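Protocol step 4 of 6: structure prediction from sequence.
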Amino acid sequence: MATKFSQYRAVTSAHVEQRAEPRHRILVTRATVTKRGNKPAEAMLHDLSVYGCRLACAVSHGEGDKVWLALRGDQPVPATVVWNDGAHIGCRFDDPIERALVRQLTLVIC
């Protein structure tokens, strides 16, 4: 039974994981982020999935910026910055990366 004190109380959102693919811990943490017309900036990769990643980067990137990520010295991966909290950026890959690359870069715990 609701009372007049609890009837309109604020409710915080639930912590629900809404990613399409789980994020994995990383073995290789060094990466570079290159924005069009700029020099590559060093970054630290924190987690990774087939669809995106989270990086710590000293260079500021705004939401919607198109960047190229070099995750392992391979071909750069095109991505879009989805969010920036000041210390980390979240990127969504333009095309999902190969699962074999994810396996090479992540620590799989069995």
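Step 5 (inspection) to follow. The first helix runs from residue 99 to 105.
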